[in-house]
Amino acid sequence: MNDFSHPERNRLSHHPLTDGGGAAIAHKNGVVHPSADTRLAGVAVVGLGYWGPNWVRNFQQLQCARRVVACDLDAKRRAHVKELHPAVEATASFDDILRDPEIEGVVIATPVSTHYKLARMALESGKSVLVEKPLAMSRREAGELVRLARGCRRTLMVGHTFLYSAPVLKTREIIQSGELGDIFYISSVRANLGLFQHDVNVAWDLATHDISIILWLLDRVPQAVSCQGQSHYCSEVEDVALLTLHFPDNVIAFIHVSWLDPNKIRRTTIVGSQKMLVYDDTAPQEKLRIYDRGVTMQPYYDTFGEFQFSYRYGDILIPRLDESEPLRQECAHFVDCIRTGNQPRTDGVNGLQVVSVLEAANLSMRESGRMVPVKYITV
Ligand SMILES: NC(=O)c1ccc[n+]([C@@H]2O[C@H](COP(=O)([O-])OP(=O)(O)OC[C@H]3O[C@@H](n4cnc5c(N)ncnc54)[C@H](O)[C@@H]3O)[C@@H](O)[C@H]2O)c1
């Protein structure tokens, strides 16, 4: 186990998004029809609770596999998905999926505590796997999945869905263009009432999104994390938390997450030395705003060592976004990576980095917010 001490190793691994639709030949009513030879023989979605049916829908709409198999232990969830998508096959047996030679890719959309075991079994059966966020419950488990996928040369991808969303991609482009100047800090709020998870706290559930977004935007990983949280309903399952991520070069990020907020808030503010950007994911349109605002510090010559500040209140720019459903992009990318062997943008290493931050945050939370160095394992 090694610390990431070298700056280059503090950078994220990432990969360009290829056109996951493969040789798509027509778009009609939002459905992409790929040429038959580019389709996978079969894909499976395991877990048909709140999120899994969205995967089934996207596989169906993209028509990127000849067979789509939907799996859940709960007969009602299987019946629900069958009603929505009659052409989909339904099963209660994960083993049947593992034994099915036509299933090339498996999406694991079950509770987080089951991710490692199910993903491991799928990889060991020769399947490519997409694990919903977060990849696993610990660095050790996440690292093992990365090693296993490499060993059997299968795709391992993580459901960091926001890295396939237009506002996040545009924000990264804006940061990389230098328009905001040096990034001072990022502040993110992700709050609403519910949905409580039973096996992970609110940091593992909601802050996973913000951590994956912030690492992607800054193109680096934090050195240390502090986190405070509190549980009000289930013991040791914190329903509100505040994380602070410390990056090199004095860059800091704050993430506030809650399952106990009367309003649904999904807002990220990025403050740079030149401009500021606000990303409001709940806005129906115009999710991004760039504020030409800032502070200039000028020496105050009467008194040595004193400064005066001048504040700039310039224009607000709303960048145009070509929006489409992020999960659709992610789904197409997963299929494309299976077909081509390309490394996914949100690969296992990316999932491992996010889990490493979450693990440090959990430790900090148990120790009243102590700043905990993030340990990254080399795989
Ligand atoms: N990427 C995103 O934006 C996003 C959004 C929501 C949830 N998620 C993730 O999706 C996953 C599922 O979350 P959810 O809210 O849908 O959970 P959920 O509890 O609503 O659904 C989980 C389903 O998995 C089934 N299940 C459990 N063990 C199983 C097994 N061994 N075999 C087959 N089925 C099994 C359950 O019966 C249940 O129907 C979690 O990892 C969560 O973090 C991701």
Within the CATH hierarchy, at the fold level, what is the topology of the largest domain?
Dihydrodipicolinate Reductase, domain 2
Count the strands? Answer: 17
Based on Cα principal axes, name the global outline: globular
- Write the H/E string, N to C: EEEHEHEHEHEHEHEHEEEEEEEHHE
Query: Roughly what fraction of the amino acids lie in strands?
Result: 25-35%
Number of DSSP helical runs: 9
Residue share in helix: 25-40%
Major sheet: order of its strands? 16-15-14-13-9-12-11-10-17
Structural class: alpha/beta
CATH homology superfamily of the largest domain? Dihydrodipicolinate Reductase, domain 2
Using only C-alpha atoms, the radius of gyration works out to 22 Å
**Which residues sit in consecutive blocks of at least 5 with pLDDT less than 50?**
1-36
Mean pLDDT: 90
Largest pleated sheet: 9 strands, mixed
What binds here, in terms of ligands, is:
nicotinamide-adenine-dinucleotide
Quickly count the domains: 2
Tell me what the CATH architecture of the largest domain is.
2-Layer Sandwich
Distance between the first and last residues' Cα: 9 Å
The CATH class of the largest domain turns out to be Alpha Beta
Describe the structure.
The protein has 379 residues and is of the alpha/beta class. It folds into two domains: 17-162 and 326-344, Rossmann fold, CATH 3.40.50.720; 166-322 and 359-373, Dihydrodipicolinate Reductase, domain 2 (2-Layer Sandwich). Helices cover 30% and strands 31% of the residues. The chain is built from nine helices and 17 strands. The protein has helices at 52-62, 75-84, 94-99, 115-124, 139-151, 166-177, 202-218, 326-340, 348-366; strands at 24-28, 31-34, 40-46, 65-71, 89-91, 103-108, 128-132, 156-159, 183-193, 224-230, 240-246, 252-258, 260-272, 276-280, 288-299, 307-317, 372-373. The strands form three sheets. It has a nine-stranded mixed β-sheet with strand order 16-15-14-13-9-12-11-10-17. The chain has a six-stranded parallel β-sheet with strand order 5-4-3-6-7-8, with helices on both faces. Helix 4 runs parallel beside helix 5 and helix 7 (202-218) packs across helix 9 (348-366). 45% of the residues are buried. The chain binds nicotinamide-adenine-dinucleotide. The site of nicotinamide-adenine-dinucleotide has 22 residues, from loops.
